[in-house]
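[Automated response] Your request has been received and processed.

Submitted sequence:
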Amino acid sequence: MGVELLIGATAATVLGIIVGYVTILGARAFGIGVDCNQAQYKSHDHCVPRLGGIAVSAGFFSGGAVLSWLGNYQTDVFFVLSLSLMPALLIGLLEDFTQSVSTMIRLLVTMISAALAYWLLDVSLLSLGIDALDYLLLLHPAVGFGFMLVAVAGVSHAFNIIDGCNGLSSFIAMIVLSSLAAVAFQVDDTFVMCAATVGAASMFGFFVWNFPFGRLFMGDGGAYFTGMLIAVLSIMLVSRNPDVSPWFPMLLVMYPVWETVYSAYRRVVIQKISPGTADRLHLHNLVYFRVVPRVDVTTDLVRRQVLRSSTTSAHIWLLAIACAIPALLFWDESQSLMLCCGLFALSYVVLYRSLVRFRSVSLPLLRSKKASIEAPSEA
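Generated structure:
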């Protein structure tokens, strides 16, 4: 299986790179699916295709097909998994092309994808690692089904939330998928290991075009597809392998999930606005404006913004790595994983409030002598 997996992953990366290049050329030639920073809350100032979902999905589908053909292993499962991901991918791409699909519609269609995975792959939440919640899940299958819909849609939306800087969501997705593959290997879950590996490889094919120069954005299609893939594989790994704590994948995606939860709290409770209102107050926005200094190595405005965006992502990567390390160390210890999730949530709030109140910390990758005040205040 080792050689077949290597070939499948290579195919996913190569196809991701090729399709990404063709997508860039096509979007520019026909002027479709191009993001020209028409929204006030965006931090770039140039036109870039936001159709990275085409490259990511093409890489995953082709890598899975090659792996199935070479190894003749669970071809039907790869096909059904791909089928369940399609609604989330298509509604995201529709938004990328038209910029007219509401957040609620996208979440509902993502839940349809989750429902397909539930019925076709028998993917369901059987345990949350907390006795009281586990009791609720066992009361009736509908309860577990509802929890799964919310969890999958939430993770998918979370990856869309953090998709704001070059290489941010794609690198974090690679870390998460690689970690899922590593633990799947330890518990001998060959399918999850292969699917996660191919997913990480296809993400790298997109990453080549996204970081550091931002020639292709992931867009809603790529973000929802990636979040769906991670959520479904996480549930599969936990439900098929009782030794794996349900808090293992939770810690892996703690940054995007907590970013989403805290953003909703901030908008509803503090700002008294709709939780779906877009703004420039996400953590990556604050790091971009208040931690990463202006890059003056070039007089070109676009290039300066691209370099700042990529540097911001490199700072945020540290959060994902800080979650992945203990997750891999304690993947079968729920108490330790829950403690790590709590510590991350607390650390995030302290860091966020420090940045909002201009008490910026000096991050190790780049130190700024003077904090920028471009971003609006929290309240």
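Summary generated for your ticket: The longest helix spans residues 2-30. Residues 18 and 103 are 30 Å apart (CA to CA).
If you did not submit this request, please reply to this message.
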